[in-house]
Amino acid sequence: MTKQERVNFVINTLNEFYPEIPIPLDHKDPYTLLIAVLMSAQSTDVRVNKITPLLFEKADNPYDMVKLSVEEIRDIIKPVGLSPMKSKGIHGLSKILIEKHHGDVPQNFEALEALPAVGHKTASVVMSQAFGVPAFPVDTHIHRLMYRWNLSNGKNVVQTEKDAKRLFPKELWNDLHLQIIWYGREYSPARGWNLDKDIITKTIGRQSIINEYNKLKKS
Length: 219
Hints:
- By secondary structure, the protein is an all-alpha fold.
- The protein has helices at about 5-15, 30-40, 45-60, 60-65, 70-75, 85-100, 110-115, 120-130, 140-150, 155-165, 175-185, 200-205, 205-219.
- The radius of gyration is 19 Å and the shape is elongated.
- Keywords: 4Fe-4S, DNA damage, DNA repair, DNA-binding, Endonuclease, Glycosidase, Hydrolase, Iron, Iron-sulfur, Lyase, Metal-binding, Nuclease.
């Protein structure tokens, strides 16, 4: 298979598996999405979705959020992990949104990435899911699968994002990155991986990865 044929196979298979794409993080507007994505760093979406309702009950906009102290925010979000850093980030960015952006979440990468605790991946998720701007946020699932599928060399997420944007049509990015995440969780996880259920890797996967899998299976 040529690289283009492999890319087409990925797109067609993912569309078949996920014609309707669930949104991983519960939110109701750009602000609540931004906070949820920030909280999801090195945590799970399931855990974040349990905690955000508790936080948003007290503050679901920057004006109410800055009325809470950093300590109060930290106590609520403690179960998601990294709470000292995340609580400072949430409080700090809420203050900046009020001071610089009239309480609104800015609709450009530069302004988003200038906010405390907001990196490129968080900004990409907000741009794609809140504002519909084409972006390709790369998380651990996408990074792993792009390597397994021999579509990226897997050196770092920056390179993986470049490769994904180069290979996949721009108009598909916003759906595709979510489809890959769901596929990675369900069929191609890092642990407990069953290659027989992973049709994409089984069909187009990197040979060294498949060989390694088979070797471990036999041992």
